[in-house]
Each structure stands twice: as structure tokens, then as C-alpha cells.
Design brief:
Structural class: mainly alpha
Distance between the termini: 23 Å
Number of strands: 0
Length: 147
């Protein structure tokens, strides 16, 4: 039976591994590309299209977390959460400036909800990314055993 995944430091109580900033950075860049494109497409869209584009934004946070988590060999949930949180912070900062410049109302509850949702989707994506990485490693290990 395989060993359960954990998101802490190395087994044995040593200090946790440091964060892989390249993995997090790549996750943030991919997230922002998807999220900003979906958000720009929402401008002037009808309510049905806006709902689908919001789903695209949520998926974007998950994809970025998956990339950060898959590229990390340890602490994949932390990598996904950090990638999601950084992406949310940048996205919300740009959205706040845009709303202030256009004179739109700023809804604090929506900002908090987006922050929590983006971070959680990053963690969920990181979990999926880690599963993909472990499956590929297992498949590579069994392919080497075949005659």
C-alpha cells in the first residue's frame, strides 16, 4: 500500500523544505493569464456568459495551483495556497484600481469571497497536480520494471 501524502516537512521531524519560488511563480503567471482574460471577456457580457466566465476564473485559480503543486515535490498544498493567494492579491489590486477609476461601487464581501475562493481553488488544484505527478512517477517506475 502506498504511503499517504503529507504536506509538511520531511518525515522524521526535520525542518520543512523551503518553498519553490519558481513553481509558485509559474502557477501565478498561468493563473493571472487565465483569470485576466476571463475577467476582460466579462465586460459587456450577458448574465449567462458572465457566469461561465466566472467559472473560467475559478478554474484558472485551480490550474495555477495545479501547476505549483505538481512542480513541487514537497508541501504541494502550501505551494498551491501561496500561488492562489498571490494571484488573488494581484488580481484584486488590479480590479480595485479599475473599479475606482470607473467610479464603480466596491463590495468588500465580494473581495473577501474572491480571496478565499481563489486560495481554496489553488489548494484544490495543487492536490490534483500532486496526484498527477505521483501517478506519472509511479507509471515511470513500473515501465522501467517491464522486460
Amino acid at each position: 500500500m502506498s504511503e499517504p501524502a503529507h504536506d509538511g516537512g520531511p518525515q522524521g521531524g526535520g525542518p520543512p523544505a523551503s518553498l519553490d519560488l519558481r513553481s509558485i511563480g509559474l502557477g501565478v503567471v498561468v493563473t493571472l493569464v487565465i483569470v485576466v482574460l476571463c475577467d476582460l471577456a466579462k465586460v459587456g457580457a450577458d448574465s449567462g456568459s458572465a457566469g461561465l466566465l466566472f467559472l473560467g476564473i475559478v478554474i484558472g485559480f485551480g490550474v495555477g495551483g495545479a501547476i505549483a503543486g505538481r512542480r513541487s515535490t514537497d508541501r504541494y498544498l502550501t505551494h498551491g495556497a501561496v500561488a492562489g493567494a498571490i494571484s488573488v492579491a494581484i488580481f484584486l489590486a488590479v480590479a480595485l484600481v479599475a473599479h475606482l477609476a470607473s467610479g464603480d461601487r466596491i463590495e468588500i464581501v465580494a473581495l473577501v469571497f474572491t480571496g478565499l475562493l481563489g486560495t481554496c481553488c489553488g489548494m484544490l488544484g495543487a492536490s490534483v497536480g500532486d496526484r498527477i505527478r505521483r501517478k506519472r512517477e509511479a507509471d515511470a517506475g513500473t515501465a522501467g520494471d517491464a522486460p
